[in-house]
Design a protein that fits this description.
22 helices, 11% strand, six-stranded mixed beta sheet, 73% helix, 1008 residues, 15 strands, six-stranded antiparallel beta sheet, alpha/beta
């Protein structure tokens, strides 16, 4: 990864800054402590990985700002990328990822921050932990790789060498091995089940032959019974025909009997109707006279109905005309009322106008006062135009003098507070020194405890690895014990074969094999007990180590807070060193400020200008109160203008009213005359008189009409009796003919019934002579049904046996196929099991690390020799002997590790015993060797090296050697950045990035 450009906005101590890396090969980032040098590198890691030294994400936002934004452009494998990460305080982050194309940057951003982060890692092939442990010697964390546990060092090295792909291959091989093993076990269970089912083939064939014989016998008996049943069913069918015929004849006989009864009843009804009609025909003359009277009354009622309709129509028309006349008169009266109201309103307006005109003299006097007040206001307005700029100038000068005085007072108060603080700091200096010494002693003790804690961790890790190996050996011996027990079970069989060569055994060989197997079983069982005892002992050791680890960890809990406290105390101690000199300077400044405030000796030019302005204002003699009184006087007499306009309007309205009043009086007289004419001489009045004459000519009497209607209702019964007479004259001959027809039909049906009675007797005699076979048929049908169910059961059972035979044949084929699949699965399992071991940590990965470490060790020692004048030497150890405990020497194995042994002129010592400068040289040499090694390999393209504050622990000679080492490897990297706060070291670099901090934040200046 090669940096191209970095743009910051509100990141840590930076407000707005831009840094262009183009043209920089080896550069130095320099500035004072706290200026923001490391923040530039933190911005790169925060933009790409979202990681920084801040404890919370909002802490990276500049104090007082709401949003942070970092825009970082870099190059990987000849391709430029751009990452933009932003965050709003109290909200979530937003991450954008872009790639450069001929037309500009094109977005690659995924759905969400996590997806975009995965895309970035996929393109740069480098995560945060690998970056800070190889190419980035981070401030305060240069020894991070050295302080890692041995297993973690191997993981970091494996990550840099891209050995994680072998972990994926190992996991895939293990997964495939587990799948093939599970498949093999499943096939073995299936084969066992199929084998037990195939043993049923002979039993199934025997049962099938027996069922076929029984089925043939039942079918023969069933055929004989079917023939006998058919003969009986023929006899039964003939008897059923006779019974059906008997039922039909009997039904006809019953129907004829019912017809005879019906005809007799109908004869009686016809005779009754003939008697009634004869009585009605005897009253013919009386009915005709009553009907003639009814018709006369009906003719009179029709004449009265015509008069009633004409009278009603004339009355309705008269009422309509009367309503129309009333509406016309009401409309004229409404117009009259409106005209009278207008006349009254004119009289009222005349009174108001006379009242307004009576005040004309008073209004003329007020107008004179108004004009005089307006002339006075005009004079004061002109004077105000001259005074206003002078007043504004006086106010501005006074405000400026007040601000100067306030700033002097504030500065005086600040000096007083600073003096008090410096005096307190001077008094607390001995206490701070004692606190620094006490905290340093505690930190030194805790660093020793950290070394002890790391040794406890290594010991615990070694014990856990030992337990894992013991558990693996225990499982292996348990498996071996099971195999031996299975061999012993096989040997208990009298016809046992050799478990190895599968040949028959005679008595001599059987005894030898049995004794040998028992001896192996006993040895294996004893060894298994040894493993279990070792597991118990190791578990107790781990419990003790855990207890010690918890105790030491509890003691180390305040370590970080103590280091922070030591830094704060050191800063306080440094700030109190020059307190006396500052107090003297502040006392002089305070005396000068107090004298200036007492005598007013400040801003003399502004004070003189203020005095000149005040003198000119007194000369003009402008008074704001007089001006306000003049304006109020104008407002007080302004009513005269309003009243004058009202008088003019009143004169105009007086002439208008004088012309309007005669018109209204004439209109009122005309409306009264029109009302009288409408009541007597209008068209509606004449039509109403004509309608009244027409109603009198009709002469309709409602009483006579009602009496006539009552007489018609009483005579209406003669009309019904006349209609009955006409109907009787028509029906009487018809009923006489119907009576004769009924008599003839009755005689014919009686003869037919006599014939059916003789036919019924013949059929009953035939049924009595023939036998009924119904019981024999039912018995045969029951036997046939029972035998049919037996046949169905036998056929179903035979079908099941045939299906079972077919399934067994299929199972035989499946059994052979699964045996072949089982062999193939076992072969695949062995292959993938061996591949998993080869891809594991102890396989190809360990071999590759073993091949890389000599080169890394040689490169480290070469650099370390240049940095320490051949005084320091390192050695990488990948294996060490484990503690055997109670186990025998042949069971003790080597433990995989990655220890770093460091030697100097005094011999090999622990890393923690070296001084800060020596420790940094060791870390720097290892880190540079790793970065150079990775740059030479194609596995990881690390083209940038960052050294953050690595010179502070070195003497002059050590610093020169570090610079020489950096220049020696410069050709292997595209960009090397070195961070330092030491001014005399920046001259060793041609390209410098100077960082300065001001009130507006950190600022960047590039010098090439």
């Amino acid at each position: 990864m090669i940096p191209v450009q970095l743009i910051l906005k509100n990141f840590l101590s930076y407000r707005d800054a831009t840094l262009d890396f183009r043209g920089l090969h080896t550069a130095c980032i320099c500035g004072s402590n706290g200026a923001g040098k490391s923040s530039l590198l933190e911005a790169i890691t925060w933009a790409i990985w979202g990681e920084s030294r801040a404890s919370t994400e909002d802490d990276v936002i500049h104090s007082g700002a709401k949003e942070v934004r970092v825009d970082f452009t870099f190059q990987v494998n000849q391709q430029k990328y751009r990452v933009i990460r932003t965050r709003v305080r109290g909200s979530t982050s937003v991450l954008e990822f872009q790639i450069e194309t001929p037309s500009g940057f094109r977005p690659l951003t995924g759905k969400g921050v996590r997806a975009t982060q995965d895309l970035i890692l996929e393109h740069i092939k480098l995560d945060y932990d690998t970056f800070i442990n190889s190419a980035y010697l981070r401030q305060g964390r240069a020894d991070e790789f050295m302080l890692k546990r041995p297993t973690e060092r191997k993981e970091i090295l494996a990550e840099l060498l891209k050995l994680t792909q072998y972990d994926d291959l190992e996991e895939r091989a293990k997964e495939s091995a587990r799948q093939f093993k599970a498949r093999a076990e499943e096939l073995e269970r299936s084969l066992e089940s199929i084998k037990s089912q195939l043993q049923q083939r002979e039993t199934t064939a025997t049962q099938r032959a027996e069922l076929e014989l029984e089925l043939n016998q039942l079918q023969q008996v069933q055929a004989f019974d079917n023939i006998q049943l058919q003969s009986l069913q023929v006899v039964q069918h003939q008897r059923q025909n006779w019974e059906q015929q008997l039922g039909f004849v009997r039904q006809q006989y019953q129907n004829l009997t019912q017809d005879c009864d019906r005809l007799h009843q109908e004869q009686s009804a016809v005779k009754t109707q003939l008697a009634e009609l004869a009585a009605l025909l005897n009253q013919e003359a009386e009915i005709k006279n009553g009907y003639a009277h009814y018709q006369s009354l009906q003719a009179q009622e029709e004449a009265f109905a015509a008069k009633f309709e004409e009278h009603t129509r004339a009355t309705a028309l008269r009422q309509q005309k009367q309503q129309q006349l009333s509406k016309q008169i009401q409309e004229i009266e409404r117009q009259l009322q409106q005209t009278q109201a207008q006349l009254e309103a004119l009289a009222q307006q005349e009174q108001e106008i006379q009242h307004t005109l009576s005040k004309s003299g008073e209004v003329e006097a007020a107008l004179g006062q108004l004009n005089a007040a307006r002339r006075r206001v005009t004079q004061l307005d002109e004077l105000q135009m001259q005074v206003s700029p002078l007043l504004q100038q006086r106010q501005s000068l006074q405000s400026h003098l007040d601000r100067i005085q306030a700033s002097l007072v504030a500065r005086l108060e600040q000096i007083q507070a600073t003096q008090n603080q410096l005096q307190r700091s001077s008094q607390r200096q001995p206490q701070i020194q004692q606190a620094v010494m006490a905290v340093a002693m505690q930190i030194e003790q805790m660093e020793k405890d950290k070394v002890y804690l790391q040794r406890i961790q290594e010991k615990g890790q070694e014990r856990r690895h030992f337990i894992e190996r013991l558990q693996a050996q225990q499982r292996e011996y348990e498996r071996l014990l099971g195999e031996l027990d299975q061999k012993l079970q096989m040997l208990r069989n009298p016809d046992a074969i050799c478990p190895l060569c599968e040949r028959p055994l005679d008595e001599h060989h059987w005894n030898r094999v049995a004794d040998k197997t028992k001896a192996e079983y006993k040895d294996t069982e004893e060894q298994l007990w040894v493993f279990r005892e070792q597991l118990a002992c190791t578990d107790r050791e781990i419990q003790v180590l855990r207890q010690k680890y918890r105790e030491v960890s509890q003691n180390l809990a305040p370590y970080d807070s103590l280091r922070e406290q030591r830094g704060q105390l050191a800063a306080q101690l440094e700030s109190t060193s020059d307190a006396e000199e500052q107090l003297q300077q502040l006392a002089q400044e305070r005396e000068h400020l107090e004298r200036s405030l007492q005598t007013g000796d400040y801003a003399q030019d502004k004070q003189q200008e203020l005095q000149q302005v005040q003198a000119y204002l007194q000369q003009l003699n402008y008074n704001e109160q007089d001006h306000a009184l003049a304006r109020s006087e104008v407002e007080r007499w302004r009513w005269a203008e309003i009243k004058l306009q009202q008088i003019k309007d009143a004169l105009k309205r007086q002439s208008q009213l004088a012309a309007r009043k005669p018109e209204l009086e004439t209109a009122i007289t005309q409306l009264h005359t029109k009302i009288k004419q409408e009541q007597t001489d209008s068209e509606c009045a004449r039509q109403i008189a004509a309608l009244e004459r027409q109603i009198a000519e009709i002469a309709y009497s409602s009483e006579q009409h009602n009496n006539l209607r009552q007489a018609i209702r009483q005579a209406q019964a003669w009309q019904l009796r006349y209609q009955q007479l006409l109907s009787a004259q028509q029906q009487y001959p018809q009923l006489q003919a119907r009576l004769q027809e009924l008599e003839a039909s009755k005689i014919a049906r009686l003869n037919e019934r006599q014939q059916l009675a003789s036919q019924i007797d013949e059929i009953v005699q035939q049924l009595a002579q023939s036998a009924n076979p119904i019981e024999q048929i039912q018995a045969l049908e029951q036997q046939l049904a029972i035998r049919r169910r037996q046949l169905d059961e036998q056929i179903a059972k035979l079908g099941r046996l045939e299906q079972l035979a077919l399934q067994l044949e299929t199972l035989q084929v499946q059994y052979e196929e699964q045996q072949q699949q089982l062999q193939a699965c076992k072969r695949e399992y062995r292959v993938y099991h061996e591949l998993a071991q080869a891809f594991g940590k102890n396989g190809i990965q360990a071999l590759m690390i073993e091949n890389v470490l000599p080169q890394l060790e040689a490169e480290t020692n070469q650099l370390l020799a240049r940095l320490s004048a051949n005084q320091l030497h390192v050695q990488f150890v990948t294996q060490k002997a484990g503690r055997s405990g109670k186990s025998s020497k042949k069971n003790a194995k080597l433990i995989d590790t990655l220890d770093i042994l460091i030697a100097d002129a005094q011999g090999t010592r622990a890393y923690e015993t070296y001084s800060g400068g020596e420790a940094f040289r060791i870390n720097f040499a290892i880190r540079l060797a790793m970065a150079k090694l990775l740059a030479q390999r194609a596995g990881a393209a690390l083209q940038m090296l960052i050294v953050d504050e690595g010179f502070g622990t070195q003497d002059a000679e050590g610093c020169d050697r570090l610079i020489a080492a950096i220049n020696a490897i410069a050709s292997d990297f595209a960009c090397i950045l070195t961070v330092t706060h030491m001014p005399h070291l920046k001259e060793a670099f041609q390209a410098r990035i100077e960082v300065n901090k001001s009130q507006e934040g950190s600022q960047i200046r590039l010098l090439v």
